[in-house]
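Entry:
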Amino acid sequence: MRSTSLNRARPGLAGRLAGVVLAAGLAAGGIAFATPAAADQHGPAPTKAGLERNGPYQVDTYQATNVRGFKSATIYAPRSTTERFGIVSIVPGFVSLWAQMQWMGPRLASHGFVVVGVDTNSLVDGPTERSQQQWAALQNALADSRVNGRIDRGRLAVAGWSMGGGGTLESARAHPEVRAAIPMAPWDLVNKNFSGVRAPTLIMGADGDVVAPNPEHSIPFYQTVGAPEKALAIVNGDDHFLPTHETPTQSRMYISWLKRFVDDDTRYTQFLCPGPSVGTILSELDEYRSTCPM
């Protein structure tokens, strides 16, 4: 059991200006990147207990229409006509349905995110197919007049479980406009190098996972992810099916990660750096590694 935190120096003004110039040059050459947005705070100051239950927003639920590229999706949106929120597309794993992890929909939406819970064309689709359908479902929501007025198109995120977790890493690598990624017990036998992922990435695993063992999946994925800000959290006393049941640790960490990196809300850094406790049988996590986002 161990906890590793790596602090990273932030660039000065000159460095940030150089980055803006570089991004502009790349965009002019045909590679488009999302314009960094200012911090966007939704809801009251966070507390540990508050992140472990539903948040301040009432939630509207819709079934996706005009479906193309995926089987179906459920969309959860905060009930507000005066705010725009980030959006996260979540895809389940091999032979699994969104219904198995649907607790995340109303939980995340109640804290200020539009959530798209995806069902794939086939239960046996692999990570690449799940990535493609995850992205298609996100685009579907962006075009849905019932919810798109509540969405900030510059704040996109992806998440997924098992093969959907592998697909999430593929989505983040393929789409540089993604602002955050959360692979949960990720599985991918074909793709093992995710150095092209630049979005802040939280990998959530479990110490009892024998389907996607951490030494073969979560840990090497974490090591190769190229994002300057990333974390690996391995939950104590759980298994591969961790995302299918609500836990305080998952709720707190998923919300905090999305708030910190989709909304740029630094009020949530306290729950990620230095992170939950490790080191004893009663600890939430068996292991936590992080670049310690500030």
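The chain has one domain: 46-290.
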